[in-house]
Amino acid sequence: MAREGISYEQVAATADALVGAGEQPSIRAVREALGTGSPNTIHRHLGTWRAARPVAQTAAYELPAELVNGFGRELARVASQARAEVEQDLVRAQAEAAELASTGEALEAERDELAAQVAALTSERDQAQATAVERAQEIQRLGDQVQREQAAAEAARIDLATARLKGDGLAEQLAELREQLTAARQTLEAAQAGRQQAEQQAAVLTAQEAAQRARSDDLVGRLAYAEKTAQGAREAAEKANREATNARIAEQAAQARLESSAREIDGAKAVAKEAKAEAAELRRLLMVSQKGEKRSPATAAKTAKAVEE
User: Can you tell me the distance from the alpha carbon of 37 to that of 254, in angstroms, rounded to the nearest whole number?
Assistant: First the structure.
């Protein structure tokens, strides 16, 4: 019988407890907390649990049209493309990991069933061997009995020959001896028949034992193959998880570069705004100065040049 698996509620409750304790709800951490459970089953339930949790949305940065240049547009395009590729790879990796986990669960169930069949066949084989031993002991007992009957028959024949030598006066004893001899022969024949039947039964049991041993060896081979396949599935799932982690790291790096560029553009915008304000103030002062004083053209040109600088 296949062993009973853990439920989604158990995995979800354990994962929530680990998150509440500030720990990462990994497959190993959940399995250690529960004390049991198949890694493939825990992986499937954790995927459902993560999908049900709210996902933090990343704020999208939109630059003003007047400050966007070729570098900004190219960086935004590359970041958007990288994010899309990373999301596609992550979805594909999660789907492959879920499929591998499902395959691993099926293989583990088949392994448990095969192990149960091997145990049952082993029990049947042991019982057959015990029966064969009992049959062999019975055959030995019947053989000993046949030998004793043969010895008794031989002794009866000797006694009969001796009685014949004694003459006609021993006729009654001779008849009795003949009856004993007939009974001994009947007993011998019955013993021989029983021995043949026991030998036939022992041969049948031996053939059954050989067939059961062959079947047990086949089941052991299938069990080893199933375990090897399950190990390959677990390794593929771990590889998919590593690739998904690397993809998330690359996405975070691209987002960081995008945020740094946005901060630089905001700084340049602030500097330009301050420069414009300062230029407007200088123009205003120039106009006031030109209206309030009469200066020579050379002086006015020098003042305007100073304002422009």
Answer: 38
